[in-house]
Amino acid sequence: MNGKIILLVEDNQDDEELAVLAFERSRIASAMVVVRDGQEALDYFFGTAAHEGKDAKELPQVVLLDLKLPKVDGLEVLRRLRADPRTRRLPVVVLTSSKEEQDLLASYDRGANSYVRKPVDFPRFAETVHQLQMYWLVLNEVPTAGGEGP
C-alpha cells in the first residue's frame, strides 16, 4: 500500500465501526488497516502469522492503539514497538476509554506520542478522529525510512 495508512488496533466492534465511519467521512488517509488484538498488531508490524509475507518495512503513518486488548495488551504492544529500531519512532496514539491515571502514565512511560480518551457520542468521536488524522497525517512530519539513527 502506498500513501498514508492508519493502523487501528481495536477489539471493540462498535468503536471500530465508529472509527472506520469517521475515517471514511474525513477522507484524509488513503487506507485504514484494522487489527483486533495485540498479537495481531505485532504480527502486522513484524510480518508474522496471518501477516507473514507482508513487507515489514511498510509501516503505517500513525497507529491508533487501544490499551485493553485480548492476547497482548496495548502497553505491551507499545513496549515492543519502542524496543525495535524499525518501529521505535513510529507515531503511536493511545486511543482508549480508560480514565485511569496509571494507564495515562504507563502509556507515556512506554513511549506513546499522545493519549486520547474516546468520546462516547458519535459526533465528538468523528471530530476526534478527524483531528487526529489532520494532525498526524497532514501537519506532523515523520522521519524518512532511512532515518533510524542511534
TrEMBL record:
Gene3D superfamilies linked to this entry: 3.40.50.2300
Domain Response regulatory: 5-133
UniProt keyword annotations, A-Z: Phosphoprotein
Alphabetical list of Pfam families matching this protein: Response_reg
PANTHER family (alphabetical): RESPONSE REGULATOR RCP1-RELATED (PTHR44520), TWO-COMPONENT SYSTEM REGULATORY PROTEIN (PTHR44520:SF1)
Keyword Phosphoprotein part of the UniProt annotation: yes
Phosphoprotein is among the record's keywords: yes
Protein's recorded name: Response regulator
Modified residues (4-aspartylphosphate): D66
Protein's organism: Paludisphaera mucosa
